[in-house]
Specification:
This protein has about 110 residues and is of the alpha+beta class. It has a single domain, classed as Lipocalin, CATH 2.40.128.360. An 8-stranded antiparallel β-barrel has the order 1-2-3-4-5-6-7-8. A hairpin with a 2-residue loop joins strand 4 and strand 5. The longest helix has 28 residues. It is globular.
Amino acid sequence: MKYRKIFAAVLLVLTAACFVSCKKNNDELVGKWMCDMYGSVQIIEFTSDGKFIDYSTSSENRYRIKDEEIEIYVEGEEDSTVSVTFSVDENTLKLGGAEYERVFAK
């Protein structure tokens, strides 16, 4: 019985840590990002409610984070999902092969 309580406490702590780490990745990503791509400025935005906005194409989609990848998709059309690796280092976002600088954080 004692071990069950210890196991339950450890499981609760690990679950909470997972939620905190997932939230942290999202918080780091939220904001507007700018990249000079082939002589043209591209601005994208990730919102805290899961929206991905590409201002260069005037498109708004959804995103979710899975491990070190962002899945961008059209809501309700799961086969539209595109996965791209990403990392955030302070004010620099590496998204696939592109590097963006933060221009606005929410």
